[in-house]
Amino acid sequence: MYGRVLRTPIDVIVPRVKQETVTDYPTNVEQLEEKIRGTNAQAREHLKMAADRQSFRVNRKASEETYEKGDLVLVHSPAVKKGTTSKLHRPWQGPGLVLKRINDVLFRVTMGPQKKPRRIH
Question: What is the distance between the alpha carbons of residues 24 and 11, in angstroms, rounded to a whole number?
Answer without folding.
Answer: 28
